[in-house]
Design brief:
Layout lengths: L1 H4 L4 H7 L3 H4 L4 E4 L9 H5 L27 H5 L5 E5 L6 E7 L11 E5 L5 E11 L9 E7 L8 E3 L6
Antiparallel strand pairs: 1-2, 2-3, 3-6, 4-5, 4-7, 5-6
């Protein structure tokens, strides 16, 4: 499906998603990199060794989730926007997802937007809780989204209407 539509299958997603046990320990990166291409900025960004050295620049990232603190340095460095951070310990009912966001306008903190899946289909309303917007124009903003815990494997982005900065 990925090669035809650009959308990973449920099996693809489960293959890169951290275990429930790891999610319960705090923030962790999720690397949705499914195709071998010449790329390694995630490795060079990770100072904790959670992404191991590549034998070949075309390799998929080898991710060790237990070494990851969810710092998010790799999120903004990924040119394919393939990395997010999940914090399933945010609250009893909600998780936080941190995603790179290269569109304008940016949403407003506190706004309610439409959480969508990898195909752009509406799943549930989510709340924008923080925007890390670097001062330099060449840096990717990171959007922090709060959502129901049961949606962390489904929601991957958002759509907004009339919510401008």
């Amino acid at each position: 499906m990925l090669n035809n539509t650009g959308v990973p299958t449920a099996e693809d997603i489960m293959g890169v998603f951290p275990t429930e046990e790891r999610l319960a320990k705090g923030p962790v990166a999720v690397i949705e990199c499914y195709q071998k291409i010449p790329c390694n900025p995630c490795y060079t960004a990770c100072k904790l060794g959670a992404i191991t050295p590549f034998d070949d620049i075309n390799d998929l990232p080898n991710f060790i989730s237990d070494k990851c603190t969810g710092c998010g340095l790799c999120v903004a460095k990924c040119p394919g926007l393939a990395i997010m951070v999940i914090d399933a310990t945010y609250s009893e009912t909600e998780a936080v997802m941190k995603i790179p966001y290269e569109f304008r306008p940016l949403p407003l903190e506190g706004s309610i937007v439409k959480g969508v899946d990898r195909e752009g289909q509406y799943v549930d309303d989510i709340r924008i809780i923080k925007i890390q917007n670097p001062k330099r124009f060449d840096r990717t903003p990171i959007i922090w989204m709060a959502m129901k815990k049961e949606h962390i494997k489904v929601i991957r982005n958002f759509q907004m209407e009339g919510l401008y900065e």
